[in-house]
Amino acid sequence: MKFKIKRSNGEKSWFDTFEIKPGPHMSVLEALFQIQDEKDSSLAFRYSCRGAVCGSCAMLINKKQRLACRTQVSEILGERVLTISPYGPVAKPEIKMGEDILIEPLPNLPVIKDLIVDMKPFFKHYEEVVPGFDVMDQSLMETPMSPMSQNDVKKVDKYAACILCGLCYGACPAAARDSDYLGPAALANAWRFYADTRYHSKDEMLNRVNSRNGVWACNEVYRCVEVCPKNVQPTNAITGFMRKIIVYKMKHLLR
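RE: above sequence
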């Protein structure tokens, strides 16, 4: 079995091919361990939990954004992949052919070394939407939070499942064109709090996401939904914000 891996040292990039002996139920992450242990100790990649919880091992596998720890080698060996890669205003087809398994760093983020990308832009956008309760909110300190109904919990649970792996950001055509775009994960997490019945800063949240680099930059092509390992639906959150912003603007116009 051959792995074709895109390498980078910060100045130039190239592809190296490694042949490995696959074990039963081997994941791509385990294959990378074998390559690092037996073939090339300089191969750099990021990992932590190995159980699809931390999101550290997000990368491009056979031209698809996936977690290496949960991608089984046996399931992708020899697969033929047709996907799209956005460049500027145009999306071009990407076709993966051949028997080798192709591994590349996550798109739309600067590459530090080999398969390790710089997540600072991703988390910068996450922080910009301020996804959390305002600890200085006097109403929260003076009165206890009202319990949420089961239906209300279900509305936010699916967005709270986000593990911030960045796969959605790597698949997003808007993020590929504009590095200032907040991105699917940040906006999904913003909606997680906006939709929470205990959250009081709703107008402030709408103002934070209502911008050219916010919800209105989304192309609504659902690539983020397609690649999410936790079945979060960022596009639904973004369109939800769009509706809320329109209603908010209409109310203020009619005052």
